[in-house]
Design goal:
By secondary structure, the protein is mainly alpha-helical. The protein has 19 helices and five strands. Strand 2 and strand 3 form a beta hairpin.
């Protein structure tokens, strides 16, 4: 990995992309410390309980601590992720959106524009809810309508700006911009989390042997995530010889790489966001909040079961959206390719679909188990839930995003035929 980074820095175009990406991530971190005016951030963080193992603690982790400081990026990219999920689900049930999705880049641009509109709408709703909570708790310095309006506008503008940052990173930088923003937020909180764990050990709140068990389990999870993320099944493909003019083409043998986890970390991010939504809404309705927390509160059996099932669902869903066996089979047939022992066309598509379903099942079960594992670990080690943010979900996102980003860098190097890398 370090060799790939060094080689990338030697190429001017790649170096500019890396510096551009790092520059925008620095902007994200700076914005995470710009406070929203008119709010007592410390009092609000205490009321939200961001230091505990509740829903706001997870939202604070994903925003890089911005919610706890109540800065302009307090809501993070969660409204954007929720809007993306809604649009992708609507693409299946609304024919017009399905047609746009099949129109290629131009159609995807229109869907992306709808996603932006949805992000703003959801951002306004979430900002109004958080501001209403702050006013009810008496943490606004001047609780009037102008202050309420300015806070809502500031929070919504912060989320919209983060959405823009993510899109710019994806377009002009390296990696998936939204995933990198979440990655940066989680990594930025690691020093604070480490300090809290050391402090808890000193105060007797955590057994050192439990912590050692947790660290060993974390290392094993990292190794397992890397193995599954890198694992793939290679489907052999033979191209028939054909003569065009005076030249002969084809006659080569290659393969189709089918990854065990085709969807990457997207299912985990989607499942987390879907579970965050009812838990967040429940905080704004004190009458139902205790019931919701008891049924699907973080760490409960209901939460773990729903989390596990949602990860499996979104793994299949996202894989179906991004990898179509029928299209792959048609493209192979168009260029004279075939899988040995199978006829081109429908039999090939059915075979690819069967292989993809089996691989996706293995990847989905793996992601689901890793996502809920921290709570099993907490039961064994008796560690507080608030110290488990960096296990499971956080670990999957950090390792998965790092691997995907490095793959993009390596692909860029291969495309440029960099001799030092190819050795």
């Amino acid at each position: 990995m370090l060799d790939a980074l060094r080689n990338a820095l030697r190429i001017g175009d790649l170096r500019r992309k890396l510096l551009y990406t790092m520059g925008l991530l620095v902007v994200f971190r700076i914005g995470s410390f710009v406070p929203v005016p008119g709010v007592n951030a410390a009092a609000l963080a205490k009321q939200l309980g961001v230091a505990g193992g509740n829903i706001f603690g997870f939202l604070n982790l994903f925003s890089g601590g911005a919610l706890g400081r109540f800065t302009v990026f307090a809501m993070g990219v969660n409204p954007y992720i929720t809007a993306s999920i809604i649009l992708q689900l609507l693409t299946i049930v609304i024919p017009r959106l399905e047609e746009l999705a099949k129109e290629g880049p131009e159609g995807r641009k229109v869907i992306q524009q709808y996603t932006r509109y949805g992000t703003v709408v959801l951002g306004v709703i979430q900002a109004m809810g958080i501001t209403a909570l702050a006013r009810n708790w008496g943490v606004l310095t001047d609780p009037n309508w102008f202050t309420f309006f300015s806070i809502v506008v500031t929070l919504t503008a912060g989320t919209t700006f983060l959405m823009w940052l993510g899109e710019k990173i994806t377009e002009h930088g390296i990696g998936n911009g939204i995933s990198l923003l979440i990655f940066a937020g989680i990594v930025a909180d690691i020093p604070v989390g480490t300090f809290n764990i050391i402090q808890a050990i000193g105060e007797g709140g955590i057994n050192p042997f439990s912590l050692l068990f947790f660290l060993v389990a974390g290392l094993l999870v990292i190794a397992a995530v890397i193995m599954v993320q890198q694992g793939e099944r290679r489907i052999p493909v033979q191209y028939a010889k054909r003569v065009v003019g005076r030249r002969m083409y084809g006659g080569t043998t290659t393969h189709i790489p089918m990854r065990i986890n085709q969807a990457g970390v997207i299912p985990v991010i989607f499942a987390s966001s879907v579970l965050f939504f009812p838990l967040t809404i429940a905080q704004f309705a004190p009458s139902i909040a205790p019931f919701v927390e008891r049924v699907i509160g973080i760490g409960t059996f209901g939460y773990n079961l729903l989390y596990f099932l949602l990860v499996i669902f979104f793994t299949y869903f996202y894989t179906a959206v991004t990898w179509n066996p029928v299209d792959v089979a048609e493209n192979m047939k168009k260029y004279g390719g075939f899988i040995p022992g199978l006829r081109p066309g429908k039999p090939t598509a059915q075979y690819l679909d069967r292989v993809l379903s089996r691989l996706t099942l293995a990847g989905a079960l793996f992601l689901g188990i890793i996502a809920v594992m921290p709570y099993v670990t907490a039961a064994i080690t008796q560690m507080p839930t608030s110290f488990l943010y960096f296990g499971g979900t956080g670990l999957l996102i950090v390792v998965g995003v790092a691997l995907d980003t490095m793959k993009q860098i390596e692909a860029q190097l291969l495309m440029r035929h960099y001799e030092g890398f190819l050795k």
